[in-house]
Design goal:
Protein name: Transporter
Oligomer: single chain
CATH class of the domain at 45-169: Mainly Beta
Domain PH: 37-160
Keywords: Membrane, Transmembrane, Transmembrane helix
Transmembrane segments: 6-26
Structural class: alpha+beta
InterPro entries: PH_bac
Largest sheet: 7 strands, antiparallel
CATH topology of the domain at 45-169: PH-domain like
Number of strands: 9
């Protein structure tokens, strides 16, 4: 074999080893996160009978551990980008992803909403993402959505923040006059 063919084969083998290493790293991350993260909430069965308050189309970018825009959650299929429809209901937020399971964020789990420029390894222009911070068990997650219409972000942030405020003002069960959370 010529030197050129051997060099080409070595390059292909190196590339395949890099892909294999990335795949192993992804699986290791998913196992590590599955050991500490609780199960993701399922949409309520009654959701199909309820009209959404608002919806917008776009791309689900991913979910990360809050505070670290690159620490993508890899549990199940939550780590994969997908076309999606974001729907707001009185009971929470549904990220209805094409080709993947729907991601349900209950209203009582919402912590904050904002626009940002980076999440889950995706970087774009300022305020290019709608990011929802929410609680999953004892962990805070940031879920990113890149809408087809960026002009609605302000309305979504305001609506989600008012939903958070309403949940915080709601009395807790069994605690007279107590505020939720």
């Amino acid at each position: 074999m010529s030197e050129r063919v051997l060099l080409s084969l070595a390059l292909v083998v190196f590339f395949l080893l890099c892909l294999y290493g990335m795949w192993l790293g992804w699986r290791r991350r998913a196992r590590r996160q599955a050991a500490v993260l609780p199960a993701f909430p399922q949409p309520p069965a009654t959701l199909a009978e309820t009209e959404p308050i608002a919806e917008t189309t776009g791309v689900y970018v991913g979910s990360t551990i809050a505070g670290d825009w690159q620490d993508r959650v890899a549990v199940g299929d939550v780590g994969f980008r997908a076309e999606a429809v974001l729907r707001r209901y009185p009971a929470g937020l549904l990220v209805d992803r094409t080709g993947a399971t729907a991601l349900w964020i209950p209203a009582e789990s919402l912590v904050d909403a904002r626009t940002d420029r980076a999440l889950a390894g995706k970087v774009m222009a300022a305020d290019g993402l709608l990011v929802v911070r929410w609680r999953l068990g004892d962990h805070l997650l940031d879920t990113g959505f890149r809408g087809d219409d960026k002009d609605v972000y302000e309305q979504w942030v305001a609506a989600l923040r008012s939903l958070v405020a309403a949940e915080e003002d709601a009395p807790s069960e069994g605690v007279p006059g107590g505020a939720g959370r």
